[in-house]
Amino acid sequence: MNARTFFPLLALTALCLAGCDNNMRHQARYDPLEASPFFKDGRSARPLVEGTVARGDLREDEHLETGKIAGAHAVEFPFPVDESVLRRGQERYQIYCSVCHDGLGYGRGMVVRRGFKQPPSFHEERLKQAPAGYFFDVITHGFGAMYDYAAQINVHDRWAIIAYIRALQLSQNALIADIPLQEREKLQAEMKNTGFSVAGGSHGA
Questions:
Q1: C or N terminus of the chain, fewer CB within 10 Å?
Q2: Do 162 and 132 contact (CB within 8 A), yes or no?
């Protein structure tokens, strides 16, 4: 490489290297909650523009999103409950709830047996009579020693879990008379074949 080529190339390289040292890392910035003389209210952190909603925070359906109707706990579910909803609720319940509430909802889960405070049984009369929206509120915001699960369990899954809790309550406090006649006769025949007798009373635990 001759001098006529070398020196222009060297100069170009020097200019490129100088350009790499941008001073963005030294730009003016504010620490969290630091005061700012630029704004009239003296705050560097700016409030949301009035009327805006953060992505994912739009709640147009009060019943679905809060478990309430006109501020009161909803009694009904915000969507039809079918077998797929119950199966989803069972799956989510076993993951998030059974560790405290146990598989049947009596509040004797594994962490309770390890010393954690025992939650109330879902089969207490108070909770059997509680509206569905009450359970939604507890799952969303927590209650007593129970943490909130809003971040872990999405809105639809919360309702699915509540549907499964209702199924647990029914299963542990059901009467044979509650079963449709055709299914009742089938169940009685199966139990008779296995040596069990079926009475008309409760078969709850």
A1: N
A2: yes
SS3 call for 6? helix
The rounded distance, in Å, linking the Cα atoms of 187 and 179 is: 9
Query: In the numeric block, which tokens belong to residue 78?
Result: 């915000």
For residue 202, what pLDDT is reported?
40
For residue 169, is it within any domain?
yes
Residue 168: closest CA among 110, 73, 104, 102: 104
192 compared with 62, residue with greater pLDDT = 62
| E strands in 27-184 | 68-69, 72-73
- Asked whether 139 and 153 are in contact (CB, 8 A), the reply is yes
Structure tokens at 101: 């509430």
Task: Answer whether residue 7 is part of any domain.
Answer: no
> Would 165 be classed as within a structural domain?
yes
Let me know if residue 125 belongs to a domain. Answer: yes
Q: What are φ and ψ of residue 69, in 5° steps?
A: -130, 120
Mean pLDDT of the chain: 86
Structural domain containing residue 141: 80-175
* pLDDT of 22 over the 70 cut: no
pTM of the model: 0.66
In degrees and rounded to multiples of 5, residue 144 shows phi and psi of 60, -125
At 96, which CATH number? 1.10.760.10
